[in-house]
Amino acid sequence: MAHPVLVAAELKNLLEPTQLVDLDITWLAADQPTPKGDWVAIVPLLSRWIGGTEFKNLPKLRIVANCAVGYNNVDLVAAEMRGILVTNTPGVLTEATADLTWALILALARRLVEGVDLVRSGQWTGWHPEQLLGLELRGRTLGLLGARRPFGLRILYTARTPKPEFERETGARRVDTNQLLADSDILSIHVPSTPETKGMINGETLARMKRGAILINTSRGDVIREEALAKSLELGHLGAVGLDVYADEPHIHRRLRAAPRTVLLPHIGSATEATRRKMAAIAIENVQSVLSGKPPLTPVYS
Ligand code: GLV
Question: Which one-letter DSSP state was computed for residue 260?
Answer without folding.
Answer: S
